[in-house]
Design goal:
Length: 300
């Protein structure tokens, strides 16, 4: 059994990131599994190495260690060859096409946010038309989805399904600036790293059917999924990296590691009161059936 941390180094971690990372680690460690750390720095404009080093240090401070990864080979910016090979495999099946729409830029600004996009008009371009248009503008690339319902059972959220055609549409796998898209990279990497269990925020639940379909067409083995609640700020928004008062810098000034783990463990249903507890001790009693499904107001 192998779990993973897959942080994007686009800012200092916040409480919500910690919450999912703690659950991912507890789930693996409570069952004798290992953890791999992968740095998801696909977007060169948003990601900085300094944030990656900082978040590794923050994870260690909290007592969340990893058994593999973290080194240069586990940074997505160094793994383009693997994504290119997967892209070629999809292209060989006739599943990719160049897209000249500018809407793609918007989608890529927030690659995890589910947007209902009908299939792109560029899907119907002939090779000649696409070559002509490529003289004016570098295309991005989309993958053609079939008319298919993909269903799976999430370990925490239960049964979930989407119709790829109506709920997702043809989705981007490579940006016009050459950057690989999250959906492709995450599938290729989780498979290449032998990840058997993905624990992440439930904002990514709606990405999972697309990813399961990619596993299938690429002939890769899919992991199990657990989509955990998001933490909400006092005004009911989900926490974001811009909520600096709840980032690791502020939290480390205010709490000792065991206190922070104790608080997160209480929100995660693992203890009745926010009493300090080391992560390693919590792993001995961790129980998925006590973890709430719904988002949690983060009251400090
Ligand atoms: N890198 C993504 C993030 O930090 C997580 C992707 C995933 O867990 O699949 O939001």
């Amino acid at each position: 059994m192998k779990g993973r941390f897959a942080p994007s180094p686009s800012g200092r971690m916040h409480l919500g990131n910690l919450f999912s990372f703690l659950l991912a680690w507890l789930s693996a460690k409570s069952r004798g599994g290992s953890m791999v750390l992968r740095i998801e720095d696909l977007d060169p404009a948003r990601c900085k190495p300094a944030y990656a080093w900082q978040l590794m240090e923050d994870l260690e401070w909290l007592g969340l260690d990893w058994d593999e990864g973290g080194e240069a080979a586990s940074w997505q910016s160094n793994r383009g060859g693997l994504y290119a090979a997967a892209f070629e495999a999809l292209a060989a099946k006739g599943l990719t096409y160049p897209c000249f729409c500018s809407r793609i830029q918007r989608l890529n600004e927030a690659p995890h946010i589910h947007e209902v996009s009908p299939s792109c008009p560029c899907a119907g371009l002939t090779a000649g038309e696409a070559a002509e248009m490529a003289k004016e503008k570098a295309p991005s690339y989309r993958v053609r989805v079939p008319h298919r319902t993909v269903s799976f059972v999430d370990g925490l959220q239960g049964p979930y399904e989407q119709d790829l055609w109506t709920d997702c549409g043809d989705f981007p796998i490579k940006r016009s600036d050459g950057a690989w898209a999250y959906q492709l990279a995450v599938v290729v990497d989780d498979a290449a790293m032998g990840v058997t269990e993905v624990v992440r925020g439930r904002d990514l639940l709606s990405s999972t059917p697309r990813q399961l379909w990619l596993y299938e067409v690429l002939g890769l083995k899919a992991p199990e999924f657990y989509h955990v609640p998001l933490l909400l700020s006092s005004d009911g928004r989900r926490l974001a990296k811009r909520d600096a008062d709840l980032d690791m810098g502020a939290l480390r000034r205010r709490y000792a590691p065991d206190e922070l783990v104790g608080l997160l463990a209480c929100w995660a249903g693992q203890q009745d009161a926010p009493e300090p507890i080391p992560a390693a001790q919590l792993a001995k009693v961790f129980d998925w059936s006590k973890v709430p499904k719904e988002d949690i107001p983060a009251k400090l």
